[in-house]
Each structure stands twice: as structure tokens, then as C-alpha cells.
Design brief:
The protein is α+β, with helices and mostly antiparallel strands. It has twelve helices and 16 strands. Strand 15 and strand 16 form a beta hairpin. The protein is globular and about 60 Å long. It binds ligand 0WD and calcium ion.
Length: 387
């Protein structure tokens, strides 16, 4: 069975739910997972701290690159068993099952949301119905092949990091503290420019959100707390989180066009998880930090809309992207029987033919994908719940 979905389809309305954090988990410097919301917050949350005096210091975002601790690409592909284990532990603790239509990593939904303005990027992911929900997992082989291709085209030896990839992690290291400022020893603040940089440590927020009639559980990496964590648990902590990014300084109109596309992707990524703030570090060609700009996520669609420099051509409209995303999610939920545990599907977008399709896998491949996606432990947990 192959079904394709016209790229021109849009839902009429985009009834959106404000995402709400259910819990968090984290990965430590050794690549071990930290489960439990309190533990993850205590051990892995970072706090934004970048005073103007630091920004004026011409910080070298390439410094320390030879000491970068890089997780091998094959291990850094969006760990599905870890997510399912985190969900199970949360369900055991609360005594209730999270019953969204879709369970997935945020990054995959970002790919769908930005698709109308990224028609040159292929998309490939698996959909596995289980226990009344659709578990959407990355096509890791395609992802790794894409990364290898990218490394080869940039003459980047495997296992090493390019200056441009490194500077993003370096910016995070110089712009955050491991504890709120008041609780951080002065020496830690002063020495953070020398801190070893790695891509092992990450804090992952798991949120419940929705578009149209569909409800989604999304797990996504959050870079830091922008201002403070509200004491009242009824307040929305997500609005206090920030996404950190870097960009080259903007000097020519052409660079503004490129930046706007990047800002659109960052908006999509942050919007899906409900992250309140986006912080951009701007660097020169020698990768020295030249300036910092803070954006509220909800303001970005208006900034893009009002940008006169990008008024020509296929002007990006965030609401248009949302209507596409809403229609695709609705279509997926309608097409795939979430109760049929004998099947598995691939969702893909092929830039060559510009087709967006849903393909039922043959029974052998389907079985493999199912086994890889739904861990035995999670399957047993949910089965025990059903009785
Ligand atoms: O397809 C996915 N969602 C992937 C997820 C592809 C590769 C890795 N991951 C991993 C992440 O490392 C993390 O463990 O999944 C977890 C969180 O996923 P997410 O929040 O859904 O991922 P996304 O929104 O795509 O990216 C968040 C961060 C990135 O930060 P920036 O500022 O660059 O958006 O996850 C990292 C990266 O730090 N990340 C990657 N790191 C190396 N290679 C990659 C990648 N291909 N993709 C995301
Ligand atoms: Ca980031």
C-alpha cells in the first residue's frame, strides 16, 4: 500500500494547544541516561548567563576544538528505547498511561513543519502502531548516510568535528552555567571559557501538545533555562526555556535571506516544544563572537512577515507551514490504524519527485522495524496495563 499526500493540502484551521511539560530526562557526560524529572533537572539543566561584557570580549568560538568530546554519530541518533523507558517510569510513578495519538522526538516533527519551505531536503521516518498510539521513529540508516555524505562533501574525517559544528556547542558552553548564577561559584563562572566542550550532555523535555484533533507527546532537547524556573508547578516552565543558536553576522541582503530561513527552522523547532525564547550568537568569519540577539518565539512569525528584505519569491509564512503540518498529522492519524499491531509504515518525502508518501512495509521489514522501535520492556509494561 502506498498513499501520497498532496503538498498543496492545508488544514483550514490550526487549533493549537499550548505544550505542557510532562517530565524530563537527560544524558550525562558518559552517555548514561538520567531518569526522573527531579534528577534530570538537578543534574543536567543549564542556565543562560552571558553578560554584555562577555559579548564584548571577542570570544573565540573555535577555541578548544581539538579537545571536543564527540559522541560517535551512530550512537547519537535519537535514542528511542531511552524515551520509552522514560515514559514507562513516568507512567509507573503517576499510575496513568499517556494516551496521545503520536509519540515521537520533536526533531522529526520539525522536519514535517518546515517541509513547505525546504523542498530540497529528503524526509524518512517510520510509523509503528502500538497500544492505540503511533510511535514515530527516525530512519537512522538514512540519517547516518546523510551525515556521512555531508562529512565527505566537506572533507571532514569521520569521528572529527568541523569548526562550524563545534562553534554551536562552544557557544552553549560559554553562554550557560550548570546552576543558577547565584549558586555558581565565582571560579566556575570565570573558567567557563576553558570548559571542555562535548555533545554527550543533554537535557530532554517531554511535552504534551496538540494540533487540530491530534494529541502528541514530543521529546526534545532543551539548551537552557533563559531566566528562572517558576516555583509554582502550575506555571508553564517551557516558556522559561531557551534554544541557543549561532549564525554568521549579517552584512549583505543575501545573508539576511539565509538567516531568515534558519530563523524559520529555529522557530519551528522551538514552537513545537513550546520553548519561549531563542538566543542567537552572531560570529564573524574567524568564528569570534560579535553579538547576541534574543527573540521571543511567538514574535518570530511577525518578524519574518514584516521583513521587507525578503519580500520577493517564496516568502516564508509560519501560519502556512502550520496549516500544512496540521493537515499532515491529521492525515497520518486517519490513515494508520493505531490498533493494528501487525503493521509498520514509512513516511517519506522525495525532493526529486516532490512526493510525500506513506508506505506500508512488507511483513519482514515491518517486523524488524516494529521490534527495533517498541522495546520488549515497554511492550510488556503496556500489556500488563491493559488487563
Ligand atoms: O532525528 C532526530 N530527531 C535526531 C535526534 C537525529 C539525531 C540525533 N537526535 C537526538 C539528539 O542528539 C537528542 O538525543 O535526539 C535527541 C533530541 O532530539 P530532538 O530535540 O528531537 O532533536 P532536534 O530538535 O533535531 O535537535 C536538537 C539538538 C540539536 O541542537 P541544534 O541547536 O543543532 O538544533 O539535538 C542535537 C543537536 O544538538 N542533534 C544532533 N546532533 C548531531 N547530529 C543531530 C544530528 N544529526 N540532530 C540533532
Ligand atoms: Ca541549540
Amino acid at each position: 500500500m502506498i498513499k501520497s499526500f498532496p503538498l498543496s493540502l492545508r488544514s483550514k484551521t490550526t487549533a493549537l494547544k499550548q505544550p505542557k511539560e510532562l517530565f524530563s530526562f537527560a544524558r550525562d557526560i558518559d552517555g548514561e541516561w538520567i531518569y526522573g524529572d527531579a534528577e534530570a533537572k538537578d543534574q543536567a539543566m543549564a542556565y543562560f548567563y552571558l553578560p554584555d561584557s562577555d559579548v564584548g570580549r571577542n570570544i573565540d568560538l573555535g577555541a578548544g576544538i581539538s579537545k571536543f568530546k564527540k559522541m560517535p554519530d551512530e550512537q547519537n541518533v535519537g535514542d528511542f528505547p531511552a524515551l520509552l523507558r522514560a515514559i514507562q517510569l513516568h507512567e509507573e510513578k503517576t499510575g496513568s498511561r499517556i494516551s496521545t495519538n503520536i509519540v515521537t522526538y520533536r526533531g522529526l516533527m520539525t522536519k514535517l513543519l518546515v517541509l513547505p519551505y525546504n523542498l530540497n531536503d529528503a524526509v524518512s521516518m517510520y510509523v509503528v502502531p502500538f497500544d492505540g498510539q503511533l510511535f514515530v521513529r527516525n530512519d537512522e540508516d538514512a540519517e547516518l548516510a546523510r551525515r556521512r555524505e555531508q562529512n565527505e562533501s566537506q572533507n571532514q574525517p569521520e569521528g572529527t568535528v568541523s569548526k562550524f559544528e563545534y562553534l554551536g556547542y562552544k557557544f552553549e558552553a560559554i553562554a550557560t552555567l550548570p546552576k543558577p548564577w547565584a549558586q555558581t561559584p565565582r571560579a566556575t563562572i570565570e573558567k567557563r571559557g576553558k570548559k571542555l566542550v562535548n555533545n554527550y550532555e543533554q537535557y530532554i523535555s517531554v511535552v504534551k501538545t496538540g494540533i487540530g484533533k491530534a494529541k502528541l507527546l514530543l521529546a526534545g532537547e532543551v539548551d537552557c533555562v533563559f531566566d528562572y524556573v517558576p516555583e509554582d508547578p502550575r506555571e508553564n516552565v517551557l516558556l522559561h526555556y531557551a534554544e541557543l543558536k549561532t549564525s554568521r553576522v549579517l552584512q549583505h541582503p543575501g545573508q539576511v535571506v539565509t538567516f531568515e530561513k534558519k530563523l524559520f527552522k529555529t522557530w519551528a523547532q522551538s514552537f513545537l516544544l513550546g520553548v519561549g525564547t531563542v538566543v542567537y550568537g552572531f560570529r564573524d568569519d574567524n568564528v569570534h563572537l560579535q553579538g547576541v540577539e534574543v527573540y521571543k518565539t511567538e514574535e518570530i512569525p511577525v518578524l519574518i512577515k514584516d521583513n521587507k528584505l525578503t519580500d520577493q519569491g517564496n516568502k516564508i509564512a509560519c501560519t502556512n507551514a502550520l496549516k500544512w503540518y496540521g493537515a499532515v498529522i491529521e492525515w497520518l492519524v486517519e490513515q494508520v490504524d493505531a490498533a493494528d499491531e501487525s503493521k509498520a509504515y514509512k513516511v517519506s518525502f522525495d525532493p526529486g519527485s516532490r512526493t510525500f508518501s506513506l508506505i506500508e512495509l512488507d511483513s519482514e521489514e515491518g517486523k524488524k522495524v516494529r521490534e527495533k522501535t517498541i522495546s520488549k520492556e515497554f511492550s510488556e509494561w503496556r500489556r500488563s496495563e491493559r488487563q
